[in-house]
Design goal:
There is one protein chain. With 166 residues, the protein is α/β, with parallel strands linked by helices. It has one domain: Dihydrofolate Reductase, subunit A. The protein contains four helices and twelve strands; from the N terminus they run E-E-E-H-E-H-E-E-H-E-H-E-E-E-E-E. Strands 1, 4, 5, 6, 7, 8, 10, 11 and 12 form a nine-stranded mixed beta sheet that branches. A three-stranded antiparallel beta sheet has the order 3-2-9, with no helix packed on it.
């Protein structure tokens, strides 16, 4: 499974249920990576999308504790176990965990690849992603050249989980 997220220099991902910044190239990267794939998100993340609707051209799985929650165009699950059971229907490499923080933390241990857009700026934030640079089982496999959006510098990183030696 994959995780895809944009983080600032402190690994912050949001503030008051909103992204810290919207960088067009990062949005394009997200769209290109996840189109025709499976995206897993929490209900709050879904609510941040235009009109609170599921993403087009993707299988949307929404994790919520609200047993009465329903949304057209998405599969609604109510626990990690129920989500994992649903995900057995798809190839692991086609699954992308897209947030928010609670969903990221629940699924991180099941993911082998993390697509991280690192933004070289510290935003005012209230939501964070685990710092993969501080976790022994994650290594950077690839990184892009540094890019600039107005005065904000950022780069794309691909982390992979180290395989345990047998």
């Amino acid at each position: 499974m994959n995780i895809i997220v944009a983080v600032d220099k402190n690994w912050a991902i949001g503030n008051q249920n909103k992204l810290l910044i919207s960088i067009p190239e990062d949005m394009r990267f997200f769209r290109d990576e996840t189109t025709n794939k499976v995206v897993v998100m929490g209900r709050t993340t879904l609510n941040t999308f235009p009109s609170g609707k599921p993403l087009k051209n993707r299988t949307n799985i929404v994790l919520t504790s609200d047993k009465n929650y329903k949304v057209d165009g998405a599969i609604v699950v109510h626990s990690l176990e129920e989500a994992m059971e649903q995900l057995k229907n798809y190839k692991s490499e086609d699954i992308y965990i897209i947030g928010g923080a609670k969903v990221y933390s629940q699924f991180l241990e099941y993911c082998d690849v993390a697509h991280i857009t690192k933004i070289d700026y510290a935003y005012h934030a209230d939501t964070y992603f685990p710092n993969l640079d501080e976790l022994d089982d994650w290594v950077i496999e690839a990184e892009s050249e540094e890019r600039t959006y107005y005065d904000i510098e950022y780069a794309f990183y691909k982390y992979i989980r180290k395989k345990e030696k047998k």
